[in-house]
Design goal:
Length: 362
């Protein structure tokens, strides 16, 4: 019997509640598909910072290294710790484990309402592949002469050939695997999300590496759009997109818009992937910690459950992952069990119970 060890970091705010529902579905998958899951929970986050002066221990990478995967509920509570400090927990794990792909599927499930009427279950099926370890989030720079009229700040972005090439190659391989355009060439499309008209060094270099990688995938169609245009076309013609590859900052921004297309942040799942599996990958809903809702059992757990589905697929339990998605779709399409953001009055736990029950009944 296969045995997977999962590091569980509930984090802050509603993290404990959504992590519980993810574990519920992972346990159901283990029961149905005859594998074992064990968990080790870590209390890292803003409360940990208030006690210890850091978001997690110095050796957190060593502690996590033996895990098959990591589940992160959510991080951040600005009433306790400034956001630029709380984010260091996430960045330490992403960079320390070379999780250079941030994978964010954007799909609208039947039965889910979206505020964007061009998005339908038929038109919305895309994936954003975001570079996750360098770019605009390289943490290089400084603040100089603070508090004076001559004060200034410098924030450097770092784009290496290796960093660009490997995330772009992953995007092309994903488009080839998805076959959204069919079995004949071109089988898929990769859109280069850029801003090379204004960022005349970093994004021009990014574009040049994209052209190199694209030449190696003649069976995949290519497309280019400036990031501001991407936001427009996401809304106007979402059916145009298949796989979008973007830098760290741009990918972060456009996926929040993508979350609204798919019905809201409560449906948006994410994975921080080390494709070579040299290090554990980390899976998380991309919504925030929403401290004002913590402990109220009202948060939509679908994003967390979908993140658990992505984890199952990554560790090799593909059939279990497919059944989780089927169960999520059936519960959402039925429209009976819904949290407040979906126009219902059900609790977080009730939605998780419904999905787990439907999964076991498949």
């Amino acid at each position: 019997m296969k045995h997977y060890h999962i590091a569980n970091i509930p984090g802050d705010g509603v993290g404990t509640e959504v992590a519980r529902e993810a574990v519920k579905v992972l346990d159901a998958a283990a029961k149905k598909f005859d594998f074992k899951v064990s968990y080790e929970e870590f209390d890292w986050g803003c409360d940990y910072y208030l006690k210890h002066g850091e978001m997690g221990p110095d050796n957190l990478l060593d502690v996590l290294r033996g895990s098959d995967a990591i589940f992160l509920g959510c991080v951040g509570d600005a009433s306790k710790v400034a956001d630029h400090i709380s984010l260091t927990l996430l960045l330490r794990i992403r960079k320390g484990f070379d999780q250079y792909v941030n994978l964010r599927p954007i799909q609208l499930y039947p039965g889910v309402k979206t505020p964007v009427n061009t998005a339908t279950p038929e038109s919305l099926d895309m994936v954003v592949v975001r570079e996750n370890t360098e770019g605009e989030y390289s943490s290089m720079g400084g603040i100089f002469k603070p508090g004076s009229p001559d004060g200034f700040a410098i924030q450097n972005a770092v784009f290496t050939h290796k960093g660009c090439e490997r995330v772009m190659r992953y995007a092309f391989e994903l488009a080839r695997k998805r076959k959204k355009l069919g079995s004949k060439e071109p089988v898929g499309q990769v859109t280069n999300c850029t801003k090379s008209n204004a960022l005349n060094y970093s994004m021009v270099y990014w574009d040049s590496v994209f052209a190199e990688v694209a030449a190696k995938f003649p069976d995949v169609k290519t497309d280019m759009a400036l990031v501001d245009a991407v936001t427009m076309w996401f809304v106007k013609n979402p059916e145009h997109f298949d796989v979008i590859v973007a830098s760290n900052l741009f990918g972060d921004i456009i996926t929040d818009l993508g979350a609204m297309l798919q019905g809201g942040m409560g449906f948006a799942a994410g994975g921080n992937i080390n494709p070579e599996k040299v290090h554990p990958s980390m899976f998380e809903p991309i919504h925030g910690s929403a401290p004002k809702y913590a402990g109220k059992n009202v948060i939509n757990p679908v994003a967390a459950i979908e993140s658990a589905r992505m984890m199952l697929d990554h560790i090799g339990e593909e059939e279990a992952a497919k059944d989780v998605q089927k169960a999520v779709k059936k519960v959402l399409a039925a429209g009976i069990v819904r949290t407040r953001d979906m126009g219902g009055s059900n609790k977080t736990t009730e939605v998780g119970d419904a999905i787990a029950s439907e999964f076991l009944a498949l």
